[in-house]
Write a structure and sequence with these properties.
- The complex is a heterodimer of chains A (about 325) and B (about 350).
- By secondary structure, chain A is an alpha/beta fold.
- Chain A contains twelve helices and 14 strands.
- Chain A has helices at about 5-20, 45-50, 60-75, 90-100, 100-105, 135-140, 150-165, 215-225, 245-255, 270-280, 305-310, 315-325, and strands spanning about 1-5, 25-30, 55, 75-85, 115-120, 145, 170-175, 180-185, 195-200, 205-210, 230-235, 240, 255-260, 290-295.
- A seven-stranded mixed beta sheet of chain A has the order 3-2-4-5-7-6-12, with helices on both faces. In chain A, strands 9-11-10-13-14 form a five-stranded mixed beta sheet, sandwiched between helices.
- The mean pLDDT of chain A is about 95.
- Chain B has helices at about 15-40, 55-65, 80-85, 90-95, 130-150, 170-180, 200-205, 210-215, 230-245, 275-280, 285-295, 300-325, 350-360; strands at about 5, 75, 160-165, 185-190, 195, 200, 220-225, 250-255, 340, 345.
- Chain B has about 350 residues and is of the alpha/beta class.
- Chain B has a six-stranded parallel beta sheet, sandwiched between helices. A two-stranded antiparallel sheet of chain B has the order 5-6.
- Chain B has a single domain (about 5-325), classed as Rossmann fold, CATH 3.40.50.
- The chains are: A alpha/beta (about 325), B alpha/beta (about 350).
- Chains A and B meet through helix 3, helix 4 and helix 5 of A and helix 5 and helix 6 of B.
- Bound molecules: thiamine diphosphate and magnesium ion.
- Thiamine diphosphate (TPP) binds next to strand 5 of chain B.
């Protein structure tokens, strides 16, 4: 049995189920309890679990992320909500220097089973400070995992996997997707990490992406199909660990590849995937791997500028047409 | 919040000979260990940054004596003294600095990052102030485990050591505020040794003459005590630990102390005078406790000599053990990155220290 629920409800179901299952799991962050969550993801959780397990914090990202690291070292399993990943930057030392390195620095004695979660990516005219896409910035760091759910099904299934993982997981949601509805089973299920999904099959060009830009990829694939170009759209789902096999298998079939990554182009996840595809599929490729990113500028405020800056269906279509011109 | 007098009562003077001798032995061990560490560093057997605890021994020994052995502790990078006072075998500590597989973290942490799970020591942290929020988390986890998981009253206290320089980090202030609003049983112990590298405490922070004022802003009980006297440290700390545990509230303690050596091994100490150094060395915590034992507890020169000899032997043996411990296998580069194994990473393996304690 399944039903249609919103992405935010899927996230809440994942957290609540995991908190019922395991008393070591707790939720902490700004406005998560009494206010019901800045984006209503945690609505009702305070009533069910009480203030010891759904914990409001002051606006103190360094403080509460560090607190979570200490609590995780002692064996608890915190879920830390960032109102936005943009605000995680003030806690960079704790989330990058402490959480992912503690196991290594302690020679395997103290791990950090934490989920850091919140909205990532341009929200909607929030300007430069509030529109961070942190995937490329943070994916560089060994010791952490990173998951990006595309729809309510994955929001729930990936988050449950994240909570059960013994490593710090950076869980990148999107404010623009919170109200998206989708099929979610009544029964319990998990979505494993490192298992990419083909969102649309096609034989002519592989498109790889994560999270919200996948909607633009699917839009582009639809438009291109009308012109007879069939794209295979792959949702990577997790960036660390990356399921490169599924991507490689697809490229060996299509001989073309476009990577769509909403972070900046320079030293990015998109660049990493392109590099791995070049390495693995050198003889299969009929053109170099093309990349579509956010433009290499700070995110602007004006509506038209912001739309132009982000990856969109038009840019993806252009990229696919330009690499497949020799097909 | 109240600023409390350092010690109401001479609790330490009521303790048995055995306990006070143990404190003396621990302080002698730390000092001997640090002297040998400096030699090894000068002989280039130890790499990286290395911060020596000589002069501050009474703080770690006296403060930890006021805790239960299972109460979690955490400190900054000047951490050899805390590790030894907590009970880490000096061989694991020495081998860690030598980058050997026998080190407490298999040679992956180094001098600044001493971790000891069997003794509830949560590191050694290299970033100034970064351990302060972690300490709030240790206290949170102890309290949560008792109250939410075990369904009983909170029983734990976490202790966080920091330098005077860390008072100027945001992480410290955020941690103090969180400890206050979330009622966390954590004690922040500032080891005020007068300097953060070359910056005297007065140049670095406001209210340097009265650091307890920092805690007043957070409504946290604060005490200042003489960190050059282990009995005074214990006298001040014991009631604070008991109160924090009972009331499930944080506390703040300034321990006034002095590091005899440079900030790290490369510091020529041009920012202070020889006179000042001699003045502090004249109040040496080891001599002070030895003096008390001799005048009050029938402790003879010969007893002192035999303790000193015992720690010399122990540290020499730690050095010999270290020499026999090989550098980590290259394979170790790829373990402990993730708790599970994937891609180039091989999952995790236990340090020798933990295997040894499991056998015991
Ligand atoms: C965030 C950060 N900035 C700078 C440093 C370099 N640093 C290491 S120790 C130190 C001085 C700290 O002094 P204090 O907190 O008083 O501790 P003490 O060395 O006296 O024990 C500095 C500036 C660092 N490790 N971390
Ligand atoms: Mg200092």
């Amino acid at each position: 049995m399944s039903r249609q629920i919103e992405y935010r409800d899927a996230l809440r179901e994942a957290m609540s189920e995991e908190m019922r299952r395991d008393p070591r799991v707790f939720l902490m962050g700004e406005e998560v309890a009494q206010y019901n969550g800045a984006y209503k993801v945690s609505r009702g959780m305070l009533e069910e679990f009480g203030p010891q397990r759904v914990v409001d914090t002051p606006i103190s990202e360094t403080g509460f992320t560090g607190l979570a690291v200490g609590a995780a070292m002692m064996g608890l399993r915190p879920i830390i909500e960032f109102m936005s990943w943009s605000f995680s930057l003030v806690a960079a030392d704790q989330i990058l220097n402490n959480a992912p390195k503690m196991l290594y620095m302690s020679g395997g004695q103290f791990g950090c089973p934490i989920v850091f979660r919140g909205n990532n990516g341009a929200g909607g005219q929030l300007g430069s400070t509030h529109s961070w896409c942190v995937e490329s910035l943070y994916a560089n760091v060994p010791g952490l995992k990173m998951a990006i759910p595309f729809d309510p099904y994955d929001a729930k299934g990936l988050l449950k996997t994240a909570v059960r993982d013994d490593n710090p997981v950076f869980f990148l949601e999107s404010e623009r997707l919170l109200s998206v509805k989708g099929e979610v089973p009544e029964e319990e299920y998990l979505v494993p990490f490192q298992q990419a999904l083909i969102r649309r099959p096609g034989a002519d060009c592989t498109i790889v992406s994560f999270g919200r830009p996948l909607y633009f990829c699917l839009e582009a694939a639809q438009a291109l199909a009308e012109d007879g170009i069939e794209c295979e759209v792959i949702d990577g789902r997790t960036i660390r660990p990356l399921d490169i096999e599924t991507i490689v298998e697809s490229v060996r079939k299509t001989n073309y590849c476009v990577v769509v990554d909403q972070s900046w182009p320079f030293a990015s996840v998109g660049a990493e995937i392109a590099s791995q595809v070049h390495e693995r599929c050198f003889d299969d490729l009929d053109n170099h791997v093309a990349r579509v990113h956010a433009d290499d500028v700070p995110p602007p405020y004006a509506y038209n500028l912001e739309q132009e800056m982000l990856p969109n269906a038009r840019k993806i279509c252009e990229a696919v047409r330009s690499v497949t011109y020799n097909a | 919040m109240t600023t409390r007098p350092a010690a109401d009562e001479n609790l330490a003077a009521k303790l048995p000979d055995e306990t006070l001798r143990k404190w003396l032995r621990d302080m002698l061990l730390i000092r001997e260990f640090e002297v040998r560490t400096m030699q090894a560093y000068q002989n280039r057997l130890i790499g990286g940054f290395c911060h020596i605890y000589v002069g501050q021994e009474a703080v770690a020994v006296g403060a930890l004596a006021a805790l239960e052995p299972t109460d979690p502790i955490i400190t900054a990078y000047r951490d050899h003294g805390h590790a030894l006072a907590r009970g880490m075998d000096p061989k694991y500590c020495m081998a860690e600095m030598f980058g050997r597989i026998g080190g407490c973290a298999k040679g992956k942490g180094g001098s600044m990052h001493m971790f000891d799970k069997p003794h509830h020591m949560y590191g050694g942290h290299g970033i100034v102030g970064a351990q302060c929020p972690l300490a709030a988390g240790l206290a949170f986890a102890r309290k949560y485990t008792d109250e939410v998981i075990e369904n009983r009253a909170s029983t734990g206290v976490a202790m966080c050591f920091l330098g005077d320089g860390a008072l100027n980090q945001g992480a410290f202030h955020e941690a103090m505020n969180l400890a206050g609003v979330l009622h966390l049983p954590v004690i922040y112990v500032v080891e005020n040794n007068g300097y953060a590298m070359g910056t005297s405490v007065a140049r670095g922070t406001t209210m340097a003459h009265e650091l307890t004022a920092k805690a007043a802003a957070y409504g946290i009980d604060a005490t200042s005590l003489d960190g050059m006297d282990v009995m005074e440290v214990y006298n001040g700390m014991k009631p604070i630990v008991d109160r924090c545990r009972r009331s499930v509230q944080p506390a703040f303690v300034e321990a006034r102390t002095y590091r005899y050596k440079g900030h790290s091994m490369s510091d020529p100490r041009k920012y202070r005078t020889k006179d000042e150094e001699q003045q502090y060395e004249a109040q040496d915590p080891i001599e002070k406790l030895a003096g008390f034992l001799m005048s009050e507890r029938k402790f003879a020169e010969a007893d002192y000599d035999s303790l000193a000899k015992a720690v010399r032997t122990q540290v020499r043996e730690a050095r010999q053990w270290t020499d026999l411990s090989p550098p980590p296998d290259i394979e170790e580069l790829y373990t402990d990155v993730y708790a599970d194994a994937w891609g180039p990473y091989h999952g995790t393996s236990l340090p020798l220290m933990m295997k040894d304690t499991q056998q015991e």
